[in-house]
Design goal:
The protein has about 230 residues and is mainly alpha-helical. The protein has one domain. It is built from 9 helices and 4 strands, in the order ββααααβαααβαα. The strands form 2 sheets. A two-stranded antiparallel ribbon has the order 1-3. The chain has a two-stranded antiparallel ribbon with strand order 2-4. The relative contact order is 0.19.
């Protein structure tokens, strides 16, 4: 029988050590997260009306740009934003989920400061579905909305909504299990941890630059300064 993978460095045992608030999520990651939430919510609400089509396109393209940026940040960003920190094998993710089943030997004090193994795959799934939804939407719009493109866009959008719903449920459940507010952590960037587990920099300049760039892109799209995408 193979031995289980060792716990990653960011895993802490809250029952045995005294923790203090440490910076875990950098500003670019948090801005990406909440801007993507706004873009998807806005795009969903503006999908059915011809009157809001331009706004729908703007929000969709901005979501696509955010996903592209997150791929880059997943390679060069701070510790907990890196794919190498939270993307693990499907077997590890499955074993993590099995720990929550009745009768399991899950230690309720064990937690991950970054994304847990299942959450890591959820992040990849959300990014992939978002990129596919944006691409199918572009295809449908640029080619006059053929049936196949429009149907693909609708199916992908609904799949994305389902995965987002599961993600929200998982965030609430995991936060309850570990006695922490994960939504607050994504707002403030802070979680209970050891001093050496916190990140050194919040990368404020990069975060503000990301916010400014996506805001400019949205403005340029909505005002017709990028006609190749919206005309």
């Amino acid at each position: 029988m193979s031995k289980p993978d060792p716990l990653p460095e960011q895993t802490v045992i809250t029952g045995q050590v005294a923790l203090t608030e440490q910076k875990i999520w950098d500003l670019p990651t948090r801005i990406f997260h909440w801007m993507l939430v706004l873009c998807f919510a806005g795009a969903w609400l503006t999908a059915e009306s011809e009157r809001t089509q331009l706004l729908h396109l703007m929000l969709g393209y901005c979501a696509g740009a955010l996903v592209l940026w997150r791929v880059v940040w997943g390679l060069v960003g701070s510790r907990y934003a890196l794919f190498s920190d939270f993307v693990r094998s499907p077997a590890v993710a499955l074993r993590y989920l099995q720990g929550y089943l009745p009768g399991s030997k899950l230690d309720p004090a064990r937690r991950y400061l970054g994304h847990n193994p299942a959450g890591g795959w959820a992040v990849l799934g959300l990014m992939a579905l978002m990129a596919a939804a944006v691409a199918s939407g572009w295809w449908a719009y640029q080619s006059g909305a053929p049936d196949v493109a429009g149907e693909a866009h609708e199916v992908l959008s609904h799949a994305l909504l389902i995965l987002i719903g599961l993600h929200i449920v998982a965030v609430i459940f995991t936060g309850f299990m570990h006695g922490e507010n994960l939504v607050r952590a994504m707002l403030t960037g802070r979680k209970g941890a050891l001093p050496e587990q916190g990140i050194r920099s919040s990368h404020r300049f990069i975060g503000l630059a990301l916010f400014a760039a996506v805001t400019w892109l949205g403005w340029a799209l909505y005002t017709g300064r990028l006609p190749g995408l919206t005309a």
